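Is this the right way to post structure tokens for a design question? Let me know if I should format differently. Anyway, here goes:
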């Protein structure tokens, strides 16, 4: 079994871990929008059981990176593996929660219907929703505090409630890897606290989690790993090593104080 070292853009060694422990391995990943690279030549490997914040300015390619992992965006070069397997072989072990802006909230589905979509990979699109599946849906709704909204059309919910619905959908999937694109956007403090509490519970159970995040003030509190991205990978590793003022300055192109509450970027 060989070891793999995580390094920053300037070559500094950040962390070493066993190659067989990699739930996500990305090599030479480039995605273009037209002829313009959205992300360029990304090499990064995510260790098992980590809770990683993906940090960078608007337009840095954070959402594109997650979409490329899920083959929603097609790379022009590079490859991605999950526990040394292709996405098609492990898709049911990966839960992806998109940005709210990417969802059709007018779709005529109830909260329970949307949460139940997380079970489709296991029972098939036309599979019958049995007692066990309904119990999982109800348990997930209870976990996110939406039990009384089960029959509500999703477009009638607040932004924070909509985020909770998609978190519940991810929970019923019982995945090994969770990808969240801005789960804290547009939510109140209570919802944000409940979401991060659930994410940390998932991590405690051995899950691997990536989260696109904007509030620099909470990065060290929320995440044990940080991935700094601005089209290229700037740094990745344990938060105390990769989330520094020097790497932030390289990521944002200017000095950044992560303790300044104004830095919600």
């Amino acid at each position: 079994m060989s070891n793999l070292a995580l390094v920053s853009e300037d070559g500094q060694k950040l962390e070493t871990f066993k190659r067989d422990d990699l739930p996500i391995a990305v090599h030479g990943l480039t995605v273009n929008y037209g002829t313009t690279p959205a992300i360029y030549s990304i090499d990064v490997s995510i260790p098992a059981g980590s809770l990683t914040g993906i940090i960078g300015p608007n337009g840095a390619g954070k959402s594109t990176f997650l979409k490329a992992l899920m083959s929603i965006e097609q790379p022009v070069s590079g490859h991605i593996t999950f526990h040394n397997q292709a996405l098609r072989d492990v898709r049911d072990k990966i839960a992806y929660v998109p940005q709210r802006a990417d969802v059709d909230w007018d779709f005529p589905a109830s909260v329970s219907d949307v949460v139940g979509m997380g079970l489709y990979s296991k029972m098939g699109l036309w599979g019958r929703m049995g007692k066990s599946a309904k119990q999982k849906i109800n348990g997930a709704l209870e976990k996110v505090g939406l039990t009384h909204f089960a029959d509500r059309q999703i477009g009638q919910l607040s932004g924070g409630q909509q985020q909770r619905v998609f978190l519940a959908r991810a929970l019923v999937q019982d995945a090994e890897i969770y990808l969240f694109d801005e789960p804290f956007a547009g939510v109140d403090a209570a919802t944000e606290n409940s979401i991060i509490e659930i994410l940390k519970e998932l991590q405690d159970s051995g899950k691997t989690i990536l989260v696109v995040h904007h509030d620099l003030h909470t990065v060290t509190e929320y995440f044990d790993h940080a991935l700094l991205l601005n089209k290229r990978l700037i740094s990745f590793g344990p938060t105390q090593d990769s989330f520094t003022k020097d790497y932030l300055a390289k990521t944002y192109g200017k000095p950044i104080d992560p303790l300044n509450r104004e830095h919600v970027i």
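Format looks fine. Someone answered above. Worth noting: The longest helix spans residues 189-204. The radius of gyration is 18 Å.
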